[in-house]
């Protein structure tokens, strides 16, 4: 098995961009592997966390921004907590995911569809509405029968309310306004919100 990264083209500005946008110093990573060893999602990664960090150091923008791992990251921050150099690896992963989105490099589209479904319910209710997220995700992904067998058991235990809990005292509207302003700003700047 060959896990070597083939260097075809280096972007010398890439690490500086990642450092600036994540407020981290990626060059401080000395490849101890603690981030990868502790990652609960590493089994689905095509590039491990330490390989992504090394890819950023080497300026391998294409390889890093096109990897599926950015989209499979759970954002649990286990990698950041285990880093002996106090690098917030999760912030670097989040930054890379945003960079990939802005360039329309979405390698796991269903994750993006779930993300939009989640945010849509927060925009309306001021917090997540689980059944609404599931319904929107099913519509966007066309995965109609996904986990359908779990529905009767979950509904029987009253774990998911049919009606959303809306944040009171104008909170939901305030959150919606904040999200709309962000979206408008992103669109003005030519960034994909």
From TrEMBL:
PROSITE patterns registered for this protein in UniProt: 4FE4S_FER_1 (PS00198)
Gene3D superfamilies: Alpha-helical ferredoxin
Residues in 4Fe-4S ferredoxin-type domain copies: 28-86
Regions annotated as coiled coil: none
Keyword Ion transport set for record: no
One Gene Ontology term, aspect cellular component: plasma membrane
Record bears the keyword Ribonucleoprotein: no
MF terms in GO: 4 iron, 4 sulfur cluster binding; metal ion binding; oxidoreductase activity
UniProt KW keywords: 4Fe-4S, Iron, Iron-sulfur, Metal-binding, Oxidoreductase
Family annotation (InterPro entries): 4Fe4S_Fe-S-bd (IPR017896), 4Fe4S_Fe_S_CS (IPR017900), HdrC_iron-sulfur_subunit (IPR051460), Helical_ferredxn (IPR009051)
Pfam families: Fer4_9 (PF13187)
PANTHER family assigned: IRON-SULFUR-BINDING OXIDOREDUCTASE FADF-RELATED (PTHR43255:SF1), IRON-SULFUR-BINDING OXIDOREDUCTASE FADF-RELATED-RELATED (PTHR43255)
Name of protein: Heterodisulfide reductase subunit C
Organism: Candidatus Desulfovibrio kirbyi
Taxonomic path: Bacteria, Pseudomonadati, Thermodesulfobacteriota, Desulfovibrionia, Desulfovibrionales
This protein's encoding gene: hdrC
């Amino acid at each position: 098995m060959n896990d070597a990264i083939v260097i075809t083209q280096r972007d010398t500005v890439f690490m500086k961009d990642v450092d600036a946008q994540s407020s981290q110093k990626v060059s401080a990573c000395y490849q101890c592997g603690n981030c990868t060893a502790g990652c609960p999602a590493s089994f689905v990664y095509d590039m491990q966390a330490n390989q992504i960090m090394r890819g950023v150091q080497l300026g391998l923008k294409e390889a890093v921004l096109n990897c599926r791992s950015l989209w499979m990251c759970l954002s649990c921050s286990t990698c950041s907590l285990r880093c002996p150099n106090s690098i917030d690896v999760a912030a670097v992963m989040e930054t890379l995911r945003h960079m990939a989105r802005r360039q329309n490099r979405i390698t796991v589209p269903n994750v993006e569809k779930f993300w939009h479904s989640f945010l849509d319910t927060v925009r309306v209710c001021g917090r997540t509405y689980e059944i609404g997220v599931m319904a929107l995700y099913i519509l966007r992904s066309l995965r109609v029968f996904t986990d359908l067998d779990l529905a009767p058991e979950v509904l029987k235990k009253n774990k998911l309310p049919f009606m959303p809990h809306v944040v009171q005292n104008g909170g939901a509207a305030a959150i919606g306004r904040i999200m709309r302003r962000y979206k408008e700003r992103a669109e003005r700047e030519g960034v994909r919100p």
